[in-house]
Specification:
Layout (H helix, E strand, L loop, with lengths): L9 H22 L5 E5 L5 H9 L4 E4 L2 H10 L6 E4 L8 H7 L2 E5 L2 H10 L7 E6 L16 H9 L4 E7 L4 H5 L2 H19 L6 H5 L3 E3 L6 H6 L4 E4 L1 H4 L5
Parallel strand pairs: 1-2, 1-8, 2-3, 3-4, 4-5, 5-6, 6-7
The chain binds pyridoxal-5'-phosphate.
């Protein structure tokens, strides 16, 4: 990534940021839903762009690549940013993630959750996580199968330094190019799964109460996600422009 190639000016960023904030508000009104939290997905964009958005009031940023994220975190160490990890997680990256993030949205295996738990420093708050669910089975390999969701949550619930906050999905590209009705289907499924999880007696009552997060919706489909009750939308392109790398 080369910062000099970054095309947006500070004013462009400001306009896009204000526009998205307005869009989220309008969608929430239109669908009679709460306004979701905006997670600004800054992968492949330079620290300077993050700092600009931070100065405008954005505090939560999402990154998909551990090494890239940590470099930017070092450049921005003077800012109290809340960092969310949203990408696929390899075992050899768990230590970096456990040490440098407040949230992880992409947990789909117990092995990874265990490593994050074991590597989470005692002086940090428990790591907030969303379990990523494979909503459209054939299209992608990421995410836990719906049938395995409850057992996975039961096992993660036993990890003291991991706090399950809810569910995340990343519908296939096919879905994100179709109309709003079709886009809503996987999000409705995820919302239903969260409701079911809250009613699952085998899960501890306190844990069920903290299940308040539906991480769903990106640049192309966040309206549909809000319609189905997204509490966090993860938006990159609409804020920062196209990713070149
Ligand atoms: C890149 C990414 C996003 C943001 O996508 P845009 O289409 O640029 O808004 C959201 N969620 C995940 C998991 C991503 O990898």
């Amino acid at each position: 990534m080369n910062c000099h190639e970054y095309a947006l000016t500070m004013n462009d960023l400001k306009e896009r940021y204000q526009n998205i904030a307005q869009q989220l508000q309008q969608a929430a009104e239109r669908f009679q839903r709460p306004i979701p939290q905006l997670l600004a997905v800054s992968k492949k964009h330079p620290a300077e762009a993050i700092e600009t958005l931070y100065q405008l009031g954005q505090t939560a940023f999402g990154e998909s690549y551990a090494q890239e994220a940590i470099e930017k975190q070092q450049q921005l160490a003077h800012l109290p940013i809340e960092w969310h990890f949203i990408g696929p997680i390899q075992s050899n990256k768990t230590s970096e993630i456990a040490n440098h993030f407040s949230w992880v949205h992409s947990i789909d295996r117990l092995k990874i959750a265990r490593r994050l738990n074991d590597q989470r420093p005692d002086e940090l708050e428990p790591l907030n996580i969303c379990v990523q669910v494979n909503i459209d089975t054939e299209a992608s390999k990421a995410g836990v199968a719906i049938a395995d969701l409850v057992p996975l949550c039961e096992a993660i619930a036993a990890l003291p330094k991991i706090r399950i906050r809810g569910l995340m999905c990343l519908p296939s590209r096919l879905g994100s190019e179709s109309n709003e009705h079709d886009q809503r289907l996987p999000f409705a499924t995820l919302a239903k799964l969260l409701e079911q999880l809250k009613q699952t007696d085998s899960l501890d009552a306190e844990l069920r109460q903290q299940l308040d997060t539906l991480s769903m919706g990106m640049t192309n489909d966040y309206q549909a996600a809000i319609a189905e009750g997204a509490t966090i939308v993860r938006i990159g392109t609409a804020l920062f422009g196209a990713r070149t790398a």
